[in-house]
Amino acid sequence: METTLSIPRELQVTRSTLENGLKVLIREIPNAPVAGCWTIYRVGSRNEKPGLTGISHWVEHMLFKGGGKLAKGDIGRLVSRVGGEYNGFTSKDFTAYYEILPADHIETGLLVESERMMNAAFDPREVESERSVVVSEREGNENDPEFQATEELFLTAFRYHPYRWSEGGTKPDLQRITRDDLFEHYRRYYAPSNAMLVVAGPFSPKKMLPKIEESFSPLSKTENPPAPIIVEPTQAGERRVELRIPSEADYIKVAYHTPGFGSEDVYGLMMLDAVLSGVRLFAFGPGQTSGRSARFYRALVEKKIATQASSEFFPTIDPSVFALDLTVWDGVSIDKAEKLLFDEIERIKDVAPSKHELDRAMAQIRSQYSYTFDGVARQGFVIGIFELVISFETMTKLVEKLSKITAEKVSEVARKYLTVENRTVCRTIGVRNDHGH
């Protein structure tokens, strides 16, 4: 087993790798009354193919059903009994599970996560009962016009890369996926070498590592699953799609292709996002800014063009998109709203952010960064996600890198990526009920 120490200023994380390939990150938080245990697997909708969309999310559901030393219902009982909380979720890049527990019950989290890693049951009756759950989730999403618009945007912006489909999968796939399909997906991706365990709490790595080894070392080493190798070709012109669906509002959603985390432009794009609509870099739960002082809010919401207008840019493993999202104010034409939205994009290309705008964005970034490391609950998650996408060190240097982004750099990345040729626009025209229009 190898261990390295990474010490960025106030943070200290010990990174180890067990012989079976499991990467372990331990964050010591002296005097914390609670501890967190996260397992993050490098599997999500990015690892799916047509015919099996939604399989990662369905496997996640199955992993709360017991197996090995845990009977059905044991996970909930064990965690609730000590006043803890637990959950899991699936994204395009990863699937994550966690338990937040009183610090002296961290072994409960280690038991749950080690059994989940290779001993899940996949009882055929439970598979069928969960099929109805994931199908009904999908049907609920299909009744949400915003979900439909976002799904259509990604299906149009990405022609080849698996980022194109949503994590919930398509209904025909969910109706045909078998128990064997699910189990094969589980065996392929739920291996120690494809996972990361993050433990945060009031214990030294020296004391915690032997407990982790005891729980996880018996799990056998397996081959790493192949990573997707599909590269999305460069977009060579604007793509447009228009939906007409039952909705009390009209929506405009836009996606511009952006580079992966290897590019330094990523930091300029993060600052562009902050200037346009506020900071959400570490917004996993409370603590995010409202964006009321940002450009979109002042130009579109305050002037009653939109009820909501935002941008979003977040790190992913493969190149993704810089997104815009606008809900049109009732009574305003969608054409007018779209024109004014793109006027703001042209303005940021021509008029660099003021010192005041950059200073305000940096103040929000610093406060969110501090807030993230104030309690146990989200530390492990943020540490783990950055480690999975690129590296934990990237997150520790994020504030410093963003503080070096100049106003001109913000306009430069806008000119480079937020072009007509590189954008996909999804307009959703709401077909109103009789009491509407």
Provide structural commentary:
The protein is of the alpha+beta class. The chain has 2 domains: 2-216, Cytochrome Bc1 Complex, Chain A, domain 1 (2-Layer Sandwich); 239-431, 2-Layer Sandwich (Cytochrome Bc1 Complex, Chain A, domain 1), CATH 3.30.830.10. 41% of the residues lie in helices and 19% in strands. It is built from 16 helices and 12 strands. The chain has helices at 55-62, 74-81, 106-118, 124-142, 145-157, 171-176, 179-189, 205-216, 265-277, 295-301, 334-350, 355-372, 376-389, 392-396, 398-403, 407-417, and strands at 2-6, 13-17, 23-28, 34-41, 85-90, 95-102, 195-201, 239-246, 251-257, 306-312, 321-328, 423-431. The chain has a 7-stranded mixed β-sheet with strand order 1-2-3-7-4-6-5, sandwiched between helices. A hairpin with an 8-residue loop joins strand 10 (306-312) and strand 11 (321-328). Helix 10 (295-301) packs antiparallel against helix 11 and helix 11 (334-350) packs across helix 16. The longest helix is centred in the first third of the chain and has 19 residues, at 124-142. It is globular and about 60 Å long. The termini are far apart. 45% of the residues are buried. Residues 4-9 and 284-289 have low confidence and may be disordered.
Please supply descriptive tags for the structure shown above.
seven-stranded mixed beta sheet, Cytochrome Bc1 Complex, Chain A, domain 1, 41% helix, five-stranded mixed beta sheet, alpha+beta
